Amino acid sequence: MPKTTFPLFVAALCLGAPMPFAISGTPEDPSPAAAATAEAPADISLATIQGKTVKPLVPPADGKAAVVIFTTTDCPIANGYVPEINRIFSEYSPKGVSLTLVQVDPDLATDEAVKHAEEYRIEPPVVIDRKHRLVAATGAEVTPETAVFDAKGQLVYLGRIDDQYAGYGDRRNQARVHDLRNALDAILAGKPVEHARVESLGCYIPELN
Amino acid sequence: MKHRILFTAAGSLAALRLGVVPLLASPDVGNTPEPEAAAVPTFNEQIAPLIHNNCSSCHRPGEAAPFSLISFEEVSKKAGTMKRVMNDRYMPPWHPEPGYGEFAHERRLSDADIALFNQWVEAGRPEGDPDKAPTPPTFPEGWQLGEPDLVLTMPAGFSVPADGPDLYRNFVLPLNLEEDKWVKAVELRPSARSVVHHVLFFLDDTGTARKLDGQDGQPGFRGMAFRRSGSLGGYIPGSATLPLPGDLALPLPKGSDLILSAHFHPSGKAEVEQTTVGIYFADKPSSKKIASIQVPPAFGRGMGIDIPAGEPNYKIEDTFTLPVDVDAISVGGHAHYICQEMKMTATLPDGTEKPLLYIADWDLDWQDRYYFKEPVRLPAGTVLRSELRYDNSEDNPDNPNYPPVRVRWGRESTDEMGSITLMVVPADDGDSLRLTMATARNQGAVLGKLASELRNGALLERLPQILNSMDANQDGNLQRDELPPRLQNRLFDRLNSDGNDFLDSDEMQTLHDFLDSLKARASGGETASVSPGNR
Questions:
Q1: To the nearest 10°, the Cα dihedral for B92, B98, B100, B105?
Q2: Domain tally for chain A?
Q3: Residue B267: its chain A contacts at CB < 8 A?
Q4: Does B269 contact A79 at a Cβ distance shorter than 8 Å?
Q5: Is residue A18 in a domain?
Q6: Domain annotation for chain B: domains and CATH numbers
Q7: CA B339: distance to chain centroid?
Q8: Which residues pair with B140 in a beta bridge?
Q9: Residue numbers of B between 131 and 170 with CB closer than 8 Å to A
C-alpha cells in the first residue's frame, strides 16, 4: 500500500547528505529487476539521433569510463541540468570519458529528440532507448539519473549528478556535493568510487507497456 | 527535514482531524452504493475526473506547467512521477495547511484522492471501459477572464540565460491613463512560461522607475529602488486569476506606471521573456476602501531580525489590534528562503481563536495570496497575531548560504524579512479612515514625533519632492550625507531601521505611507465635519 512505502521515500530524502542508496543493489549484486532483462553492457549498441552507432556503456578505446544520463524532453529537473551536463561532457571527454544522453520516452520520435537537443543546445551524443535496454542494464529509475561503467564493464556509479535538488521544488542556488564528478575523478585516479549509489531526484522513467 | 517545532500542538490536532478520512474513500461517482472490496479504479471512471479537475488547468498545451496531463496516454506515462509528487504534496501546489482558514479555489487533493491515485498506479494503470471514456475538459483559450480592458506588452524582451542563479527584475509599463481607474483583476501572459516564476504588480506615480528602466542595457532594472505608490497583486503559475470579490476594486490613479516585479528561474534553455498583461477595470469605484494590515509592519523591519548561523528555530512574533469591525478578504505572507513556518491567528474580543493562515513549509517560490471562501468578520478589538519561524541551519535545503551565515533583515534574497498581510474592508465604510490611520500608525510608529514637528501643511505637502531632490547621486537611495545636518538625526536616524548607511526605498516608503495617512486625516477631518455619521 502506498501509505507504507511513502515514508521510506521521505526518510531517504531526510538524510540529505550523500549516502549509499540501497534500492538498486550493489555492483556485484544487481537488483533482480535489472538482472531479469539486462543485456551485457558491451552488447548494447544504439544509433544516436545523428545516425551514428554507439555503445553507450563502453568507454572509448584507452578510456576509463562511460557515462549515460537518462532524460526525457519534458522533465524540468533533467532539462535544468543540461548546462552542467554540457560542462561535464567538455571537461571529461579529453580525459577518456564518454558521455551519452539517453532519451527514455518509448514514444519519442527522432525529430522531436533532435529539436529538443537543438533548443537546449545539448552537446553530448543523444540516443533514444525505446526498448529500455539501457534502463534495464543500469537499473535507473528517474531522470536525470546517471550511470557510470568502468573499462571492465562494471557499473561503478548509479545516482544523481549532484545535490542541487534537495527535494521537489527545493533547488539550491548551487550544488554542494558533485557526486558524478566525484565518481569520475575517483575512477580517473584509479580509486574506488566512495558513494556508488546515491538517490537521484527527478521524473520517474515511464514503464513500458 | 521539515521541522514543525513552532506549532506542533496545533499542527497535530489538525492532522488528527484530517486523519480520520477513510483511506480508500473515493470521490465516488455514485453508481455503486456498497463499495466493492476489490474494485480497482480505472482511468476512464475515477482517475480522469480527478486529474482533469486538479491538474489539467495548468498541465495542458500553452500553459505554465511542463507537460500536458489530459489523455490516458499522457497520465499513464507520468504516473510514477505524479504519484510521488502527490504524496510529497508538491503537486498540486497548495501551501496553506488544512484547518487554518477556508479558501476559495483551494488546489488541495484529499488523502482519499491520493490513495485512489496510488491504488490505480499499483493496479497497473488500467484504462477501463472505453464506453466510459471521459470527454476531455475544455478550458478558456487565452485570457482566463475574457478580453481585458487594457492590454500591455513589454516593448522589448528580457534575456534569461539557460543556467545560473534565480533572477529578479522590474519592468516598466507606462499606462498613460487619462483618468483614475479601479481594477478588478490583472492577468499575465508570459511568453516564456517555463522561466517566469512569479510576478508582482506595483504602481509608480513618480516616474522614478521610468528613469531606471534600461540603464544597464537590458529592459527593466534591478532592485526595488522606486517608491511603490500602489499594488495590484501578482501572478503565480498555477493560481487562477481572481477578480476581487463583490464590487471591491483597487485604485489605479492616472499618472501611474505599472511595474512588473518578476522572478525568473533558469530552465536549462536560454529564453527571452516578453510579458503581456491584461487589466480588467471595474465600471465604478470600489464600494469600500481595501486596506492592507501587515503584521509585523514593513516586512518585519522593526523586529530586529538577526538569525545566528546554524540556528534552526528562530522566531518572531507581532500583534495588531483592530480598531474597527472588518471583513477579511484575503491573506498572504512574504518572507525569503530560510523562513520555514508562518501563521496568523485572530483572537476575538470574546477570546475565540480564529486561525487565518498556517503555512508549515514556507516556499518563496509559491508565495500566493489566498482569498477566503467567505469574508471573515473580525470585530473591533480583535488581536491579529503573526508568528514566523526561520531555519538557518544547513539542514534547511532552502538555505542559500552553505555553510550557513548570520542573516539579518534586508531586501536581498540572502537577507530575511517576514510578515503576513491581511486584506480587509471595514464593515462600516465610515470606519475607513480610522482603519487607515491605525495601519499607518503601525507602519510608521517611528515617525510619530516627526509628524508633530511637521504640522506645517505646506512643508508636509512638499516633503516627498524635497527628499527626492536630495538624492544627489540619483541612485534611488538617500545617503545620510545627502541630507542637511538637521535632518540627519530628525529624519534619517528614525527611518533607518536596518542601521546601514542609506535610506532605501522600503524605508522611504514608510515615510510616504505616513505622510499619506496624515494627508488623509487632514482631508478626512473635513469630511467628518459634513458627515455626522463619521466618528
A1: 40
A2: 1
A3: 76, 79-80
A4: yes
A5: yes
A6: 8-132 (no CATH), 150-281 (2.60.120.230), 288-443 (2.60.120.230), 444-535 (1.10.238)
A7: 15
A8: none
A9: 162-163, 165-166
